Amino acid sequence: MDQFWEYLKHPFTLGLLLGLAVAAVAWKSGFSARRRLGKDIRKLENELRELQGHLNTQLKINAQGNDAVQKELEEMKRQNENLRVSLASLQSKPGKAELRHAQMTENAVRLMREQAPGFAPAWEKAMRQAEVELEAGESGLKKLVRRVIPGIGMSGGPATATGTQEGEA
Predict the structure, then answer these.
(1) What backbone phi and psi angles, to 5 degrees, belong to 112?
(2) Phi/psi at 165 (nearest 5 deg)?
C-alpha cells in the first residue's frame, strides 16, 4: 500500500488523475446536455406535428369557406342574370304609365261623345275628369269594386263589348 501512495504522489499520476477527473466532468456534462437536447428535440418535433395539424385544419376550414363563398357568388351571378333578363322582359311590356294613359284617353273619348259641342275645351275637360276619376279609382272603393267585378267601367256602369256604357248611342 505504501507503493500505491507513492505512485499517487508522483506528478505524472496526479496530472493523469486530474485530467481524467476533468474529462469525466466534461463527459458527464456532455451526456447531460445531449439528453436535454434530445428531450428538447422530441418536444419541438411534437409541437411541430401539432402545429402542422392545426395548420391543416385551418387550411381545410378556409377551403370550405372559400368554396361556400364561390358557390354563393355563382348563385348570386345566376340570380343577377335572371333578374336582368326579367327586367328586360318587363321593360318591353307596356308599363303602368302607358296603361293609365290609355284608360284616361278611353274615358276622355267616352265623355267627348257625350259633350261634343266644342272639341278642344271639351277634350281638355274630359281628360281632366278622366284623370280625376282614374286617380279616385286607383285609391279607393272603385278600385276594389273594379277588382271584384271586372265588367264595371270607370264611370261606374257596366261596360259593353264596344267599350261604351249601356244607354249610350
Answers:
(1) -65, -40
(2) -85, 155
Rounded Cα gap, residues 75 and 81, in angstroms: 10
Q: What is the DSSP string of 104-142?
A: HHHHHHHHHHHH-SSHHHHHHHHHHHHHHHHHHHHHSHH
What SS3 state is found at 159? strand
For 42, the grid coordinates are 422530441
CA distance to 17, 40, 46, 63, 65, per residue, from 52 (Å): 51, 18, 10, 16, 20
* R_g of the chain computed on alpha carbons: 52
| pLDDT tens string 4-45 | 777 778 888 889 999 999 999 999 999 999 999 999 999 999
C-alpha–C-alpha distance, residues 145 and 143, integer Å: 5
